[in-house]
Amino acid sequence: MDQLQTLASWIKESDNIVFFGGAGTSTESGIPDFRSAAGLYQTQHNSPYPPEVMLSRTFFMSSPDIFFDFYRSKMIHPEARPNGAHQLLAELEQQGKLKAVITQNIDGLHQQAGSRSVLELHGSIHRNYCMDCSRYYGLDQLLEMTEIVPHCPECGGIIKPDVVLYEEELDHSVLMGSVAAIASADMLIIGGTSLTVQPAASLVTYFRGKRTVLLNGDPTPYDDQADLLITDRIGKVMGSVKDLLS
Fold first, then answer.
1. To 10 degrees, the CA torsion angle through 93, 8, 237, 102?
2. Which residue positions form the known binding site for nicotinamide?
């Protein structure tokens, strides 16, 4: 409880908080992470290819049917709902304390919870575009398409999710916006990330503020640099902190 009270008091004292999060932020919402023992990269699936291969640009272009079979079954979770972490962050933004959420996730749960200042490093499942005519399709429209590889009803082109695949670069404007937000923050909360995926993980090195808080169940390369380290489930922690702040 002392750690939670410390975090709550630091939040009260801060007025420029930035949150940097990864897959662990959404595991309590029922979305598997990637690298833990129960994560996506460790579980069984129907393809002989490893997920890292199937989620590459080269594989998407050469075998879109296998890509979409995996993507639809493993990467899309329309039933997921925000947990305590998403809810607290949205509330802090509404209070003017939190200036940005920087996420490696593609699930859109921060926006569903009410956050508006969200920088999505790896894109979003909720945005999909025809590769030929650039027509936009929402997730609901994509899910209504019965063919394995979705094609644009207007021109017949393949519809690609607006997610960053292996071999693709991050959006430059999102990257620069993340750097600026972290560099100007007085408090950085890092949650649910192993801090091993580059270049996203290197963003935390731009922080020059007063306090760094790290919430992650497993050790990270940044643990010894955190002012406060909490190794418990982030949704549970943030939900308890939300109660302390109310």
1. 30
2. 34, 106-107
Q: Is 159 exposed, middle or buried (0-12, 13-18, 19+ CB in 10 A)?
A: buried
Half-sphere exposure of 190 (CA within 13 A, CB side): 31
Q: DSSP 3-state assignment of 166? A: strand
**Residue 151 per-residue DSSP state:** B
Longest dimension (CA), the chain: 59
Q: Are 113 and 104 in contact (CB under 8 A)?
A: no
pLDDT in tens, 140-198: 999 999 999 999 999 999 999 999 999 999 999 999 999 999 999 999 999 999 888 88
Secondary structure of residue 149 in the 3-state scheme: coil
Model pTM? 0.93
Sheet holding 159-163, edge to edge: 136-138, 123-130, 159-163
| Residues in the annotated binding site | 23, 27, 34-35, 104, 106-107, 122, 130, 133, 152, 155, 193-194, 216, 234
Neighbours of 215 (CB within 10 A): 29
3-state secondary structure of 214: strand
Structure token digits, residue 143 = 């899910």
Residue 24 C-beta-side C-alpha neighbours within 13 Å: 25
Task: Give the pairing type, strands 228-230 and 98-103.
Answer: unpaired
